[in-house]
Design a protein that fits this description.
Elements lengths: L1 H23 L1 H8 L15 H5 L12 H6 L11 E8 L5 E11 L4 E11 L3 E4 L5 E5 L2 E12 L4 E14 L2 E15 L5 E16 L9 E9 L5 E7 L12 H6 L7 H6 L2 E9 L3 E8 H7 L11 E8 L3 E10 L2 E11 L3
Antiparallel strand pairs: 1-2, 1-16, 2-3, 3-6, 4-5, 6-7, 7-8, 8-9, 9-10, 10-11, 11-12, 12-13, 13-14, 14-15, 15-16
Length: 346
């Protein structure tokens, strides 16, 4: 009985700590509720090809995936010791995204460490004055350097946190900041289901060349279920839970085009991402995802909208290396995401 009370006290303390940090970040919450624009929005992009294939986000997938652990630190485990993840995502117009993340385990203290960088390069862009005269070239960049730690907390629970230094540079305009993520993951005793809660980007800008803005604060819930008698895993992720109205809506445009304001059911769906993983033997997997909000935001009235919101990918496992590919549809275009995970200490 004493042990059970102790476990409940620890769990209650963790939930209280997360709630307190959320409340301390009240300015961010206010900005999100009033639909204000956040700075450093590149922090919301998926870090790995598998995340891109699973709808753009997954915080609860069952397995040992270093790329997903870069986004949710409570997914890091000692089995990832010595692993390194490299992600490359070429966008359109020469824009490139790079993600590097390594994991090591400190056995004496039972702490798993992660360290890496999330980097966006927007290529060379001409600088012009108000009349359109070229003044030279600039190379805008965004990056976040992060360090993470995770450990077992109570039986079947794992807690993790990430600290990030963030820098944006757009020609003469610069901004930097710091933020923290906190994740808590529960793994069922049967290892057939996993649930996570993740609080992202609790922090602030340290300096800016313009008006100070809030970070893209987020509260995310995730649940994954692996079938006992079939090689299939399903996931449901609830995104942006700090704000109910999760739908972009321009009243003037909507009235001009005969569109109605989003209803409660639409707002509910726009918080959800669903995905599945199909395992073909021990070495090959097929990943599928659907992002309701992306579909709604990208759809254009009276036009064919194709596969907006859908995503897919594959993964191939070797002895020490995993190769992953993911894509997502944006109107008639696909963006492609590639990841390599190498385990040096296996």
């Amino acid at each position: 009985m004493r042990l059970s009370i102790s476990l409940l006290q620890k769990l209650g303390f963790t939930i209280s700590l997360i709630a307190a940090l959320v409340l301390l970040d009240c300015n961010t919450l206010h900005a999100q509720i009033t639909a204000g624009n956040a700075s450093f929005n590149f922090l919301t992009l998926p870090h790995s090809a598998k995340a891109s294939a699973l709808g753009g986000m997954n915080i609860s997938a069952i397995g040992e995936d270093v790329g997903l652990a870069m986004f949710n630190p409570s997914l890091m485990t000692e089995n990832m010791n010595g692993s390194m993840h490299l992600g490359i995502k070429p966008y359109f117009a020469g824009i490139q995204q790079y993600d590097l993340f390594g994991v090591s385990h400190w056995e004496k203290k039972n702490i798993t460490w992660g360290y890496g960088v999330h980097f966006l390069d927007y290529g060379n862009i001409p600088m012009t004055d108000i009349a359109g005269n070229e003044l030279g070239m600039m190379r805008p960049t965004d990056y976040a350097i992060q360090i993470a730690a995770a450990t077992d907390y109570i039986p079947n629970f794992r807690i993790g946190s990430t600290l990030k230094y963030i820098q944006s540079s757009y020609g003469m305009y610069r901004a930097n900041g710091v933020s923290m993520d906190i994740g808590l993951t529960y793994w069922s005793p049967t290892h057939l289901s996993k649930s996570s809660i993740l609080v992202k980007n609790i922090g602030t800008q340290l300096s800016t060349s313009g008006i100070r803005q809030e970070l893209p604060f987020n509260i995310i819930l995730g649940w994954s279920k692996k079938l006992a008698q079939a090689p299939i895993q399903f996931s449901v992720t609830a995104d942006r839970l700090s704000v109910w109205n999760n739908t972009y809506y321009d009243p003037e445009y909507a009235i001009a085009n005969g569109m109605k304001a989003p209803q409660n059911f639409q707002n509910l769906l726009n918080h959800l991402l669903i995905s599945s993983e199909v395992f073909v033997g021990n070495q090959f997997e097929i990943n599928l995802g659907y992002n309701f909000r992306r579909r709604n935001d990208l759809n254009i009235i009276n036009q064919a909208n194709g596969l907006n919101g859908f995503s897919s990918g594959i993964g191939f496992k070797l002895d020490k290396m995993q190769i992953q590919y993911g894509n997502a549809a944006f109107q008639s275009n696909l963006y492609h995401h590639f990841s390599i995970i190498y385990q040096f200490k296996k």
